[in-house]
Amino acid sequence: MHFLDCRGKSCPLPVLETKKLIEEKGLLNVTVAVDNEVSRENVRRFLESRGYRTSVEGQEGGFSIIASKEGGQGPSTLPEVKLTTAFIDGETLGRGDDRLGAILMKAFILTLKELKPLPWRIIFINGGVKLASVGSEMLPYLQELENLGVEILSCGTCLDFYGLKEKMKAGRISNMFEIVTSLTASSNVLKP
What we know:
With 192 residues, the chain is of the alpha/beta class.
């Protein structure tokens, strides 16, 4: 069992270092140590997307993600179909008056529900993470999209920056590695 210590490293380094290690060494068994819940979930999801079975143990100063898999390639998290992703980096749409921008953003999010097929993911970064957090009038619409199967991802670094990690109410916390790979896998990226 190979051990990788990623304690003290912030997003997306634990995922990137785990990816590099398993790809370079072709490891079937690895334990990754992290010191926060976001890194724990990001590393766990990444390993599972690569076909590893995982378990998590609490340890002094953090968590250990224990991963193993049988030989061969694991499944990918990226479906091989045409995917549409909405990439939202602010609370408003367009430049100019913020009140108008907020009206346009609401119309954009409401219109996403009408797409056939529905978007695969909606990714929020920077000020966009505020739309998926407590106090946002967009929450009911985002939660409805989530209930319809659309994945809602918010940048963990951005949530930390704005002090919103505990106030996020739609979707889940993500990391830059997952965001970049999602955009790369998408056939269409909608950026309002």
